Amino acid sequence: MKEPHIPSINLSRLLREGGSTDARDEILEYIALQEERIPLEGPAKWKVSVTRLEGEGGQEFWLSGEIAGNAMLECRRCLTPTPTPVRAHFQYLLRYEAGLQQLEVIEEGEEEILLFGHPDLDLVPLLSEAFALELPYTTLCKEDCKGLCPVCGANLNEVDCGHHPKPQTKLGAELSRLLGDLD
Ligand SMILES: [Zn+2]
Ligand SMILES: [Zn+2]
């Protein structure tokens, strides 16, 4: 068993000497957002590299990274958890502000700057946000998923429950045809 640990990158050496550093690892089981978790099938792999920028007193850095994994999303028709590939790239301008407790985003002119106060930079918020932004709105377990029976809720990919709901009115029939086309 691999010990779960918090994704981070240590920038102590960069703060002292400049240059670049990188880190890579995997996130297991789920991507944690503030209010929810996105379950994963298999590990989500990430890598991040950081370079100190010249000037600005050596307190500014350019970070770029990517994360890729399979999110388990519910099929929009039958609700079966379905592995859905997600790949995200992200970039940040970072500035070190000793003593700052939490990551903070500020705007200076046109630029967004991410402030951090600990040389061991917590990557969880960056990785999670990037991953969540690339999630598709919906997914299908397969192109021709038959969905759930509106009468008994059976998964029609797995069983034929024998219900054949018929729209009662001409308008109903027309509506379900239109909705069927949209689906
Ligand atoms: Zn489905
Ligand atoms: Zn049924």
TrEMBL record:
InterPro entries: YceD. This is DUF177 domain-containing protein.
